[in-house]
Design a protein that fits this description.
The protein is α/β, with parallel strands linked by helices. The chain folds into two domains: 8-179 and 324-375, Medium-chain alcohol dehydrogenases, catalytic domain (Quinone Oxidoreductase, Chain A, domain 1, Alpha-Beta Complex), CATH 3.90.180.10; 181-318, NAD(P)-binding Rossmann-like Domain (Rossmann fold, 3-Layer(aba) Sandwich), CATH 3.40.50. It has helices spanning 14-17, 63-69, 118-121, 158-161, 171-175, 180-190, 207-216, 231-237, 253-258, 277-286, 307-310, 327-335, 354-362, 364-367; strands at residues 24-30, 36-42, 52-60, 86-93, 105-108, 152-155, 162-164, 199-203, 223-228, 244-247, 267-272, 287-295, 316-318, 345-350, 371-375. The strands form three sheets. Strands 3, 4, 5, 6, 7, 14 and 15 form a seven-stranded mixed sheet that branches. A six-stranded parallel sheet has the order 10-9-8-11-12-13, sandwiched between helices. Strands 1-2 form a two-stranded antiparallel sheet. The two termini are 27 Å apart.
């Protein structure tokens, strides 16, 4: 079991990083559907040589956390600390960790990767076979092990699951690289096979949909159409890379969108970023012959696939769980100022007001929340 290494005095804020063995820290704990509490929990300890302990300097809330609180994710049990996004400072390293040191600022990826199993070597760490508590899924923080909505978190497979932060990248920009930016890019843009000149429609202008819009320009999309029911989010989409917007609540929304495509034949790529049957059907309705429907949304019920109409259209339909293999590339783009994910931040809270943060994020349509930031 590792301890604080020599050099810990270099930490910018030693009093916040020093913890007595056996002490208690605070975290947001799930206690069943609709039940959560900010309470004291045992200080996380290194268990395996490849672990590190990270002081959480910033975290945020994901729509998946809301699904958990609704009881939609049965793998999350009473007593689990929530959260799978964060930026922090390493305070302790295991004996098997050689490339990370105490004091390093890091992005905590939502995906834990052993880096050695068949799926990790295939570039699909989202299905890591060695992640704790499961066989075949890399999303474990706030799901199968304690997560990041806490003062401290234990990170397994640290060397292949953390990303060092270069100087000049703010925590607010970096925390968006934990999940939403790689998700929108990998499962939306990359799986959608966006290429130069494409017309892309993104159905759903929430944080992940906006991430797809922001990164579609990396692959040269000529037009990015935001589709949503919320006028506020459609207005915000213009600052995240959307060239056009369509309110899908209008009776003629589809005619309006199709008029933006070449010959009125449909979009080259339709990215579904909501996760309900209606929006998936919308994506298949607006795709042109030879196009790609990229499903990003997390679906909680069956979706009708009208294959009798689609089989002849030569389309591709892709799905996926983020693997975060693009994080380093996206981090380079952020470092160079090519991407500005800090613009997702709409509200700021402290750990002591985390319940207010959940209330604000849970009423996003009313509060106009995109991403809420939570700091010590």
């Amino acid at each position: 079991m590792g301890g604080l290494q020599d050099g810990s005095a270099d930490l910018a804020d030693r009093p916040r990083t020093w913890r007595q063995i056996g002490s208690l820290v605070k975290a947001l704990v799930y206690h069943g559907p609709g039940q959560k509490a900010w309470e004291e929990v045992p200080d996380p300890k290194i268990i395996d040589p490849t672990d590190v302990i990270v002081r959480v300097d910033m975290t945020t809330i994901c729509g998946t956390d809301l699904h958990i609180l609704k009881g939609d994710v049965p793998g999350v049990t009473d007593g689990r600390i929530l959260g799978h996004e964060g930026v922090g400072t390493i305070t302790e390293v295991g004996s098997g960790v050689g490339t990370l040191t105490v004091g390093d600022r890091v992005i905590i990826s939502c995906i834990s990767s052993c880096g050695a199993c068949s799926y990790c070597r295939q570039g699909l760490p989202s299905h890591c076979l060695n992640s704790e508590g499961t066989s075949g899924i890399g999303w474990i923080f706030g799901h199968l092990i304690d997560g990041t909505q806490a003062e401290y978190v234990r990170v397994p497979f640290a060397e292949t699951s953390l990303h060092k932060l270069p100087k000049g990248v703010s925590d607010e920009a970096a925390v968006m690289l934990s999940d939403i930016l790689p998700t929108g890019f990998e499962i939306g843009v990359r799986n959608g096979r966006v290429k130069p000149g494409d017309v892309v429609a993104v159905i759903g202008a929430g944080p992940v949909g906006l991430s797809a819009m922001m990164t579609a320009e990396l692959y040269g999309a000529s037009r990015v159409i935001a589709v949503d029911l919320d006028a506020n989010r459609l207005a915000q989409a213009k600052s995240f890379g959307a060239t056009d917007s369509v309110n899908s609540g209008g009776a003629d929304w589809m005619d309006e969108l199709m008029a933006m495509t070449e010959g009125g034949l449909g979009v080259d790529v339709a990215i579904e970023a909501v996760g309900v049957p209606q929006t998936f059907t919308m994506a298949t309705d607006i795709i042109r012959v030879g196009g790609t429907v990229a499903n990003v949304g997390v679906h909680g019920c069956s979706v009708e696939l009208r294959l009798q109409d689609l089989w002849i259209k030569d389309i591709a339909i892709t799905t996926g769980l983020v693997s975060a293999t693009s994080t380093q590339m996206l981090l380079r783009m952020v470092t160079q100022g090519k991407l500005t994910p800090e613009n997702f931040v709409s509200h700021r809270f402290t750990f002591d007001t985390i319940m207010d943060a959940y209330d604000t994020f849970g009423r996003a349509a009313e509060t106009k929340a995109l991403k809420v930031i939570i700091t010590p």
